[in-house]
Amino acid sequence: LKHFDDHKEVQNIDLMILADFCRNCLAKWYMAAGEEQSVEIDYDQARKAVYGMPYSEWKEKHQLKATPQQLEAFEAKQK
User: Fold this and answer.
1) Does 37 have pLDDT greater than 90?
2) 23-36 and 12-19 are packed helices; what angle lies between their axes, rounded to 10 degrees?
3) Which of 21, 22, 25, 76 has its CA 20 to 30 A from that of 47?
4) pLDDT reading at 67 higher than 90
5) How deeply is 9 buried, as exposed, middle or buried, from its count of CB atoms within 10 A (0-12, 13-18, 19+)?
6) Which residues 6+ apart lie within 8 Å of 1 measured at CB?
7) Cα(43)–Cα(28) distance, rounded to whole angstroms?
8) Where are the alpha helices (DSSP H) in 1-79?
9) Residue 79: pLDDT band by 50, 70, 90 thresholds?
């Protein structure tokens, strides 16, 4: 998580293209791990743990609109 926090310039779509997962995926895995340990955590709490702030705030500050090249690469990866 520290690595992702240190590299906010890396967009989620780039992570999906490169590694088939993104910060939101990490939040879902975090939430599932909590459930396995009988720890109640909802998706918003999990995303706050992953993003280091509420998702809406992170999105406003750091998320850029996907470029045509990113969208093309993402779609190609899905096939």
Assistant:
1) yes
2) 80
3) 76
4) yes
5) exposed
6) 26, 49, 50, 52
7) 7
8) 2-6, 12-19, 23-36, 43-51, 55-62, 68-78
9) confident
Which residue type occupies 10?
Answer: V
The first and second tokens of residue 67, run together, are 């470029």
Closest-CA residue to 27 (of 46, 40, 8, 5) = 46
pLDDT in tens, 44-65: 999 999 999 999 999 999 999 9
Compute the distance between CA of residue 32 and CA of residue 63 in angstroms, rounded to an integer.
Answer: 25
Q: Check the CA dihedral 45-41-23-73 and report its sign.
A: negative
Domains in the chain (CATH in brackets) are 2-78 (1.10.3340.10)
